[in-house]
Structure formats: C-alpha cells, structure tokens
C-alpha cells in the first residue's frame, strides 16, 4: 500500500504515498500558488491532518495529548543485535537482498579505496585506532550493515577542522574504487570545531564494493556542508550510514548526489546536540536501467528550536530503474519550537521504472513552529510544459529544460561551481544531448 | 496587420460523461491596434476562452473556429500558436524550478524569432525593459516564477510580452492581486506596446479598475460562456455602477427557460 508502481502512470499522474499533499493533477490546476512543488512550503502541524495514514505506526500526527511514544529505534555497535536481515524487515524491505548480500556477507578485509585528497590550511587528516574515545561517542549504527562496517573498519579516518577556521576552499576526498572482489570497510569522522566554516566533498568514483560510515560532528555555531557524490562505475555496490550531530546554533548542510553504481543504499541520520541548530538535507538521484538507489533519512528533533529541511529529487528512466526514499522526522516532546519540512519528488521519464516515496512525521509536541511533508511521483508537469510551450518553445526543448531545472534546483545547493557543472554535465549526457540552450548564457548586469 | 477571429467557439472541460460545456458559442474579432476588454463574473468562462485560444490540453474545442490571419489556430500545437504571434499573459504563471529567467527568456525569444537574438542587443533590451517595469536586475537569475510575489509574476508576464512582441496578446486577469503601484507599472507596459506598434490586445478582467489605466476600444460582457453585450468604453462605466447582476439574472432566466422547454 505504500508502493506505487509509477510505471503505468499516465502523463503527469501524480502518485503519492502517505502524504497529505497529493501531487497536483493537471485538472486541479489554475489555482493560486500551484507550481512545481507538490505542496505548500510549510504546513502547520495542526493542518497535517489524518489523511494517508496507511502504514502502521509510520505516520502518526500527534495531537496535544500523545497516545504514547513510538518505539525507540534500535541502535548498536554489535551486528548480532540486529540479526541477519531477510528482506522482510521494515528497514530492508525495499532493498534487493540478493544484490546487497555481497556487502552483508562480505568478509573483513584490508581492501581500501584510493584516496586523493585536497586539504586546505586549517584541516588535519589523521586516523584513530579502534577503541579510541572519539569512536565511542559517535551515534551508533542503526542496522546490521552499519554495525558490521563500524566493527570491520577498525579505527577511523578523521578530518579535523580547527575551531573558528575559515577554509579558503572545500576539503575534497576523492575516493576511488579499484575493482577488487573484497568489500572495502571504512569509517570516516569529520570533526568541525566551534564557529568554523567548512565544506567537505566525498567524491566516490570507480568500481567498488564499499561499505562506509560517515559521521559529521558539527561544533557549536559552526557551518558545515558535506557533499557526497556517488558517481560509481557500473556494477558497484555502496552502503553507508551518515550521521550528523549538529551543535548549538550550528548549520549543517548535506548534499547527496547518487548517479552511478548498481546499488546504492545510504542512511542519513541527524541529531541535535544543542538548541538553535539547523539541518538542510538535499539529495539528487538519477536511476537508469536496473539501478537501485535507496536513500533513507531520519531527523531526530529532541531539543528545542531546531530546524530541518529536506529536499530530495530523483529521476528514473529505463526498465528496472528503482529508487526508494524514506524520510522520517521525529519531533520529541522536548523539541518545542521545531520547524521542519520535507519534500521528495520523483520524475518518471519512461515506463518500467519504479519510485517508492515514504515520508513519516511523528509529532509528540504541539508547541512547534511548523511541520510538513510532501511527496509526489509522476511524469512531467503538464502545466510547466504548457507554460514553456506557450512561449513558443517546442515540447522536446521544454521537456529538457524542465528536467534540467528539476535537477539544477537541488544541485545548485552544492555551491561549488566546478562540481555543479560536472554533475549537470553527467546528468545531461544521460538525458541525451541537449540542444545548445546554455552555450550562450545571458548575464543581465 | 493581424486579425484574430473567433467564431461560434464551443469548449468543454472534462471527459466523457463528466464533460461540461464552458464556452457556448463565442464570437469575437480582435485586430491589430485594437484593445478589447472582456468583462464578466467569476465562472463565466473568461479564462477558459484565454486558455482555449492558447491551446491548453485541459480544454476540448467541440465546435467553431479560431483563425489568425486566416490560419487555423486550432490545428496548431501550443508552441506553434505562440510562434504564429499569439501570447497569453497568465493569471497564475507556473513555477519552473531550476530554470533561470534569463535562460527562459532567451530560449523563448530564440524559438519565436527562429534564431538566437544577438547577445549584445538582447542583453540591452532585457535590461531596459526590466528597468521600465521596475524590476531588479537580480530578477534575471532567479528561477522562473519561483517565490515571486503576485506583482512580480505579472511584471514577468508583461516583460515576456514586451520581448516576444506578439501580434495578439491576451491578458488573463493580469490585474488581479496587484496593488496600485504594480497595476500602474503593468498597465504602462501594456500601453507602451500599444503606442509603439500594431498589437491587438484582449484584456480579460473581472474588475473595471485596470480600465482606468488601459482604455479599451471595445468592451464585451461575458456571461455563461458567451458574449452577451458589446459596446465601447462607456459600457465599462455602466458595469462599474451596476455590476453584472442584470446579465447574470437574464442568463439564469434563459437557462431556466431552456431547461423548461427541453
């Protein structure tokens, strides 16, 4: 019931899961504010309503008198606490188990990715051994694969940004697979000191079987952007748990771009260590024939006055293209003054592709600023096409403009021109050559 | 010199048994140099007329003709209609995330003119038109209609009309939701176009307010899917004072009579 096989969707049919903001149908347009987005920018908690309550326990909108908190998420550094997944578990039910077995069943190994690093001044790249106090304080793994990774990685690579450092360029870790049969197990910790400002880019390329944990510790008042690019060679398998611990009044931005690989399954968790923190989680994915791309997010609001904003957009084309987006947001009783919004949009470009989209919002206090979510999966937005065509632009060019814009909307959040251009180039290549729309940019100075 | 001719146009919305007739025999002729105001109450089909002429797929033409200089508009695709010289300034312009205004305008101008406008003159044209519409230059780098205020959207529509230079422009409730300043700026943009050239304007509005700024040559009262009265600018004054009540009443009585005789 939470799955929508959009492969059979008519042109511009919106299909949604568990959302109170259904996709806009062409016949419902011509209303003020109707645009590309599936819902309004914010939805007050009191309006999130009771619609779409489909999956048990997955979508409870708490009222003034909570009927009981949902169970705590299981976390542990011990893989055996989770047991061996069968594919029937909630956290694994969307994952093709056969294709992730190479990681789940993979042996410990010394294999590693090739690292090409660019470290600006103020940044230290070091490593810690297993048992280091730093590792004990990290958020725990949420599934067996993440626990195996923590265990097998042994220690961790650590990127340290000194407090109050203002980096003159991004920290770049080019992580290239070398194509061996062994699973590469890895743990990375990015530790950013108070009031520092840093951007860290993880650029994954090449062929690999890779399971990598990433933890970002954002100091009080710090501003950190983590960009993770999955531009893997075909056949690659990548699993990973990303955790962010956002300090008081800190700003954390994460941009996940998944383009390559056979299977990519990333779990991104955010927690707040102090009040006033902000997390912006952006994601872009493009699944071609047979690719499985799964992004699971969990934002845990447990302290007051924090903000989270989630925007993930994906496109699918070709037979067997498959994407999964799970967006869980929990607002605990103590998290008064929370402001949260999450949006997932999927653009299905051909038949035979399937996108699953499941936003879950659990609100345990009424004392919040706003909480909302929206999810829409469908073909092109007819209204956008009509608008462009009504200006003389032919339908094919209009479609390319819309798809390009669909991605650029998220990619432009990276803030690094060279990477944005490269990624848009990759996307355009996969869409087929665009007519030279951008060769002559217009600057209105 | 262009002529848009609409003859006995019938349009439905919806499919099969749900199909509902919105336009019930519209006759209208708009020539270059003329400004026509179409006025009518909510739900009378004014916007349907605008979108039907532009070719929105939601509407099905079940009868009648629309021609531009003798060419069959109804046989053209949406983009062909625009390239033939029709322009629709929309009541609710659509957001296109990730597509900048400058890219959009240039792509549209290239499509309409059949070749990319020369960069230097184009940049100058865009800049001066934006200044005349009191739009900040930063506007060009924003995504199309995304986060625009109501006034910004309408100015953006008029900016497009100025740059694409259509033969016939249909302005669908361009005045709705505008404050006095924005209404003046938008109206001045329309008036500049009228003064400069041979444009024909079809101004669709619910209120007479915009007609204080843009003087129509002809006023058509639109009720229940067709034109029920025509006159000059003085008809707008009459509507200002008396509203649509009399026309709506007539229409209802007529509908009742039709039902009774059926």
Query: CATH topology of chain B, what is it called?
Result: Rossmann fold
Largest protein interface? A-B, 44 and 50 residues
Which architecture of chain B does the CATH hierarchy give at level 2?
3-Layer(aba) Sandwich
Fraction of residues in helix of chain B: 25-40%
- Which CATH class of chain B? Alpha Beta
Overall mean pLDDT of chain B:
93
Poorly predicted regions of chain A: 1-66, 433-445
Molecular structure report:
Chain A: Belongs to the iron-sulfur cluster assembly SufBD family. Chain A: This is Fe-S cluster assembly protein SufD. Chain A: One of its GO terms (biological process) is iron-sulfur cluster assembly. The complex is a heterodimer of chains A (445) and B (262). By secondary structure, chain A is an alpha/beta fold. Helix content of chain A is 15%, strand content 36%. Chain A folds into two domains: 345 residues, no CATH class; 58 residues, no CATH class. Chain A is built from seven helices and 18 strands. Chain A has a nine-stranded mixed β-sheet with strand order 1-4-6-8-10-12-14-16-18, with helices on one face. Chain A is globular and about 65 Å long. The N terminus and C terminus of chain A are likely disordered. Chain B has 262 residues and is an alpha/beta fold. Chain B contains eight helices and twelve strands. The longest helix of chain B has 17 residues. At the A-B interface, α5 and α6 of A face α2, β7, α3 and α4 of B.
Q: Which features does this protein show?
A:
heterodimer, A: 445 residues, alpha/beta, 9-stranded mixed sheet, disordered N terminus, B: alpha/beta, Rossmann fold, 4-stranded antiparallel sheet, 28% strand, globular, ATP-binding (chain B), ABC_transporter-like_ATP-bd (chain B)
């Amino acid at each position: 019931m939470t799955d929508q096989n959009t492969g059979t969707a008519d042109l511009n049919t919106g299909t949604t899961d568990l959302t109170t903001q259904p996709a806009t149908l062409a016949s419902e347009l011509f209303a003020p504010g109707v645009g590309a987005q599936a819902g309004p920018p914010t939805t007050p908690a009191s309006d999130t309503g009771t619609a779409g309550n489909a999956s048990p326990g997955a979508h409870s909108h708490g009222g003034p008198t909570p009927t009981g908190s949902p169970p705590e998420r299981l976390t542990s550094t011990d893989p055996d606490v989770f047991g061996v997944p069968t594919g029937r578990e909630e956290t694994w039910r969307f994952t093709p188990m056969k294709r992730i077995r190479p990681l789940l069943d993979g042996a410990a190994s010394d294999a590693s990715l090739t690292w090409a690093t660019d470290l600006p001044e103020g940044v230290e790249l070091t490593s810690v051994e297993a048992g280091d106090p730093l590792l004990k304080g990290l958020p725990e793994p949420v599934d067996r694969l993440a626990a195996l990774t923590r265990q097998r990685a042994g220690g961790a690579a650590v990127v340290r940004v000194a407090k109050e450092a203002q980096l003159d360029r991004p920290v770049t870790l080019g992580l290239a697979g070398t194509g061996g049969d062994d699973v590469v197990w890895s743990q990375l910790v990015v530790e950013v000191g108070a009031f520092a400002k840093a951007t860290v880019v993880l650029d994954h390329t090449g062929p690999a079987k890779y399971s990598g944990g990433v933890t970002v510790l954002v100091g009080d008042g710090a501003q950190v952007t983590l960009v993770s690019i999955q531009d893997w060679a075909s056949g690659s398998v990548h699993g990973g748990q990303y955790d962010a611990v956002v300090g008081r009044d800190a700003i954390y931005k994460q941009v996940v771009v998944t383009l390559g690989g056979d299977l990519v399954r990333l779990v991104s968790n955010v927690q707040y260590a102090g009040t006033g923190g902000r997390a912006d989680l952006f994601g872009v994915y493009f699944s071609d024939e047979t690719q499985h791309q799964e992004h699971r997010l969990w934002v845990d609001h447990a302290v007051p006055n924090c903000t989270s904003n989630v925007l993930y957009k994906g496109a699918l084309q070709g037979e067997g293209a498959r994407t999964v987006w799970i967006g869980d947001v929990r607002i605990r009783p103590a998290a008064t003054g929370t402001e949260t919004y999450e949006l997932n949009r999927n653009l299905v470009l051909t038949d035979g592709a399937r996108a699953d989209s499941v936003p879950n919002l659990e609100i345990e206090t009424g004392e919040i600023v706003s909480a909302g979510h929206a999810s829409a999966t469908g073909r092109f937005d007819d209204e956008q096409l009509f608008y462009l065509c009504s200006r003389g632009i032919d339908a094919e060019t209009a479609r390319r403009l819309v798809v390009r814009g669909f991605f650029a909307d998220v990619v432009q959040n990276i803030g690094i021109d060279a990477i944005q251009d490269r990624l848009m180039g990759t996307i355009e290549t996969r869409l087929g050559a665009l007519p030279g729309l951008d060769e002559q940019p217009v600057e209105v100075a | 010199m262009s002529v848009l001719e609409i003859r006995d146009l019938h349009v439905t919305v919806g499919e099969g048994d749900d199909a509902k007739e919105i336009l019930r025999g519209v006759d209208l002729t708009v020539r270059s140099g003329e400004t026509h105001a179409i006025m009518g109450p909510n739900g009378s089909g004014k916007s349907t007329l605008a979108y039907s002429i532009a070719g929105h797929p939601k509407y099905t033409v079940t009868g009648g003709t629309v021609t531009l200089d003798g060419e069959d508009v109804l046989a053209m695709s949406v983009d062909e209609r625009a390239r033939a010289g029709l322009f629709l300034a929309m009541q609710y312009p659509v957001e296109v995330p990730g597509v900048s205004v400058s890219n959009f305008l240039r792509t549209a101008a290239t499509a309409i003119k059949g070749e990319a406008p020369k960069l230097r003159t184009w940049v100058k044209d865009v800049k001066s038109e934006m200044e005349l519409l009191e739009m900040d230059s930063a506007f060009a780098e924003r995504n199309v209609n995304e986060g625009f205020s109501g006034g910004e959207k309408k100015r953006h529509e008029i900016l497009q009309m100025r740059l694409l230079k259509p033969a016939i422009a249909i302005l669908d409730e361009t005045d709705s939701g505008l404050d006095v300043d924005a209404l003046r700026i938008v109206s001045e943009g329309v008036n500049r176009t009228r003064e400069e050239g041979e444009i024909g304007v079809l101004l669709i509005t619910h209120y007479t307010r915009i007609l204080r700024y843009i003087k129509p040559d002809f006023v058509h009262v639109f009720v229940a899917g067709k034109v029920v009265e025509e006159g000059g600018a003085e008809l707008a004054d009459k509507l200002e004072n008396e509203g649509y009540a009399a026309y709506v009443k007539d229409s209802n009585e007529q509908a009742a009579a039709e039902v009774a005789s059926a």
